[in-house]
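Hello Y.,

Per our agreement to keep a running log of every chain we model this quarter, I'm adding this entry. I've kept the format consistent with earlier entries: sequence first, then predicted structure.
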Amino acid sequence: MSCGLGLAIPTPCPMTDKGAAQMAAETPSAQTILYVCSTCRAGVAPIEGQPVAGARLLAALQDAHEASSVDAEDKSRLVIRAVECLSACSRGCAIALARPGSWTYIYGNLSEADVADILLGAQGYIASADGIPPWRERPVIFRKQCVARIPPQEIAP
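Predicted structure for the entry above:
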């Protein structure tokens, strides 16, 4: 398949389309998803029987979010999900913040020491109308360690 310029156009991936549809069905529009690359090794060889850096970051984020003093309604607006890879291996550990109709951000070079700032940054993201929190209100790690910012996906009628 090619476009008018003779460039090859990849065929749609049914796995991606199914995943997006399933994710949209499972995620209320006001909910923000914090994806955590749970397989990230952060440049360190895995030690048998020990969780890799990404799995440790995921567990620390889940524990801190559950223990946070944020009220239940606000807490439910953030869902933390493991993903197998965010393809930011040279910038691991990586996370992504996404919400339907909003900008998506991918951040890298994170660790368990960053958990409080990650959750603070997620709250700023949630509070923003379009996924773009004010620059000066973002934690330093969100200002300095952004890997990518992805525009909102337009939903066709």
